[in-house]
């Protein structure tokens, strides 16, 4: 299906480019999420209005069209020329950062009002309350939705192939055009994206458990079919009902 030369010169570098785009876009999205999300909780209406406007614009536009706009419209409008990867990273990071800002805003809003009142009683400034009280409590609640957002961003990196970034989807399309065989190529791409998503999920689960431990919370019990069978077997062993009919 795939010659050794094509695999080493195109497909492996394409996987590495996908990893780079994911990491850079995720870093930008995380920064934007916290910046815009915290600004949307500001007591100043003008700050809330500006950050809310950003959120609505990027939530309501297509990431693919934004990528084309960054790559092809910005040079003619502003005279700024982005390399294709930079255009893709900016479009993905700013778009998914807008979605992430809602996660941050919602988690901060869920912090108990008594906690904020305690910070006010201690004469903390708004920034001190945010850093020492609100964000540490809100962070564990942000991780599960951020996990979903990160997976969506990973899958969204395939869009950079449309602006000639040689990621693994771009390499797969080249191989399909050369070989004329779509099924094995796209099946391989699906498997690779799934493996990446699975690894990201496991990493975020570990991060979530660590965050809960730091807050003194008991990690949630593992769920799933196998966990349920183990739990049932343990219960039967204790109660002696395993063989009861």
Report the average pLDDT across residues: 85
| Intertermini distance | 55 Å
Report helical residue fraction: over 70%
Shape descriptor: flat
Keywords, separated by commas or semicolons:
single chain; 245 residues; mainly alpha; 9 helices; 78% helix; flat
Description:
This protein is mainly alpha-helical and 245 residues long. The chain has helices at residues 4-39, 45-59, 63-78, 84-109, 113-121, 126-156, 168-179, 183-214, 225-239. Helix 3 (63-78) crosses helix 4 (84-109) and helix 6 (126-156) packs antiparallel against helix 8. The longest helix has 36 residues, at 4-39.
Q: What are the SSEs and their pairings?
A:
Layout: H1 4-39, H2 45-59, H3 63-78, H4 84-109, H5 113-121, H6 126-156, H7 168-179, H8 183-214, H9 225-239
Brief overview:
The chain is an all-alpha fold and 245 residues long. The protein has helices at residues 4-39, 45-59, 63-78, 84-109, 113-121, 126-156, 168-179, 183-214, 225-239.
């Amino acid at each position: 299906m795939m010659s050794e030369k094509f695999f080493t010169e195109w497909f492996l570098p394409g996987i590495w480019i996908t990893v780079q785009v994911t990491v850079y876009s995720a870093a930008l999205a995380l920064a934007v999420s916290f910046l815009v999300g915290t600004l949307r909780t500001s007591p100043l209406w003008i700050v809330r209005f500006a950050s809310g406007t950003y959120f609505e614009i990027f939530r309501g536009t297509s990431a693919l069209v934004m990528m084309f706009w960054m790559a092809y419209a910005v040079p003619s409008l502003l005279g700024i020329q982005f390399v294709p990867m930079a255009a893709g990273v900016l479009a993905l990071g700013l778009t998914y950062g807008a979605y992430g800002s809602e996660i941050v805003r919602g988690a901060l809003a869920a912090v108990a009002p008594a906690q904020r009142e305690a910070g006010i009683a201690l004469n903390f400034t708004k920034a001190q309350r945010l850093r020492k009280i609100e964000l540490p409590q809100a962070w564990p609640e942000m991780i599960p939705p951020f996990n979903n957002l990160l997976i969506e961003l990973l899958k969204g990196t395939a869009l950079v192939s449309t602006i000639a970034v040689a990621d693994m989807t771009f390499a797969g399309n080249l191989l399909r055009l050369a070989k004329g065989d779509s099924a094995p190529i796209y099946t391989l791409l699906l498997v690779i994206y799934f493996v990446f998503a699975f690894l990201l999920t496991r990493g975020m689960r570990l991060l979530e458990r660590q965050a809960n431990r730091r807050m003194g919370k008991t990690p949630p019990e593992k769920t799933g079919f196998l966990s349920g069978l183990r739990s049932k077997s343990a219960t039967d062993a204790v109660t002696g009902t395993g063989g009861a009919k």
